[in-house]
Amino acid sequence: MEPRHARYPFFASAREAVRASGVDLAALVADGDDAVDRGRERVERALTEGTVEPEDAGAWDTRDELLSYPIARILVSLLDSHAAVEKYAQAEAATAYRRFTEDLDRARDDGARREPARVDRDALLREFDLAGAVRIEDPKPGQVAGRWLWLDVGAYLSYVDPDWGDDWRLVNRELVDGEVRTEREELYRLLREAVEDRVAEGLPFEGVGEELADELETEISDLRDLLADRSVAADLDVVAPEYFPPCIAKLLGRAQGGDELDPHERFSLLAFLAGLNLDAEEAVALSGLDPELVADRFAYLRDDSGAQYPPPSCRTLGEYGICGNEDNHRSVAPHPLEYYSRKLREADEVVDWRERTDSDAGDAAA
Fold first, then answer.
1. Which residues form a coiled coil (predicted)?
2. What pLDDT digit, counting tens, does each position of 222-273 carry?
3. What pLDDT does 69 receive?
4. HEC letters along the chain
5. Domain 3-200 top-level CATH class
6. Whole-model pTM?
């Protein structure tokens, strides 16, 4: 098991390293191995943060990191949710993209010097059978060497996504002798798509033994809270912070006061705001959180139909150390959105926070 295997666990060589090690994944789970904890974190961070980077990189060794990948795939399969597969694959691809662009940029800066954990361009292209499909363009005077390349049209069409926009449509590209002229950064984006396809391939898979599923019941239960039914949020489009559950109100107050929220706290607050159908700009205005961070998180929390991931249940918030059942509010409802919905129904008159903000702006202008 090599550092590069841990950094890129979806590589064929990494899978072979796991197979050759003879490690019994079921035994790891039964023994509560550290790789199982890292695998759970891998999936949780994929669903909540859009990354599979460890929160504390120093907590895990090469073995834990590599073995956490097949464990994570087992967990995603047991969730048996298309949304979970999609978000997990996207997060693995996003993390890989950050890593290999860093590696390739460093390789250009350092020249021939190589580091065992890092990947070079040739190895990355070989991994996805693209070595013979890419031809580096000879730079013209004044051009940066390696900026432009020619990619086999079949390989290009295999990974390009129609949703990327008109610039990616073949009719708008330079196409000569079956090759598409492509910028280096565009190739990186196509490679990110290749990673996502590979990670998603075969998920969810069948054949996870009943005994193994039972051993992972706690982990699966916690992860399912992140995929809970959002029907309670369907009609919630009023934002009245005074009716928020106490734990969410406390998080909001801390954010507004400039406190740094940990990942669980940040996810819980933003998922709640997304569940109220706020957009990222409104969430920034209300919470005071960093706009770039909010936009990034909302990209994973929301889709075209609304908030895909509601905030965790009160029980899970308690496990995170966020909810202490202040004012015995769990007796009102076991879920933050349900609590908020009931409080709104009980209120005599509710003024939306956005209307108050607009009114204050109008008064100031007058």
1. none
2. 888 766 644 444 457 789 999 999 999 999 999 999 999 998 899 889 989 9
3. 97
4. CCHHHHHCCCCHHHHHHHHHHCCCHHHHHHHCCHHHHHHHHHHHHHHHHCCCCCCCHHHCCHHHHHHHHHHHHHHHHHHCCHHHHHHHHHHHHHHHHHHHHHHHHHHHHHCCCCCCCCCCHHHHHHHCCCHHHEEECCCCCCCCCCCEEEEEHHHHHHHCCHHHCHHHCHHHCCEECCEEEEEHHHHHHHHHHHHHHHHHCCCCCCCCCHHHHHHCHHHHHHHHHCCCCCHHHCCCCCCCHHHCCHHHHHHHHHHHCCCCCCHHHHHHHHHHHHHCCCCHHHHHHHHCCCHHHHHHHHHHHEECCEECCCCCCHHHHHHCCCCCCHHHHHHCCCCHHHHHHHHHHHCCCCCCHHHHHHHHHHHHHC
5. mainly alpha
6. 0.73
pLDDT in tens, 272-293: 998 888 889 999 999 999 999 9
| Tens of pLDDT, residues 133-156 | 999 988 888 777 788 999 999 999
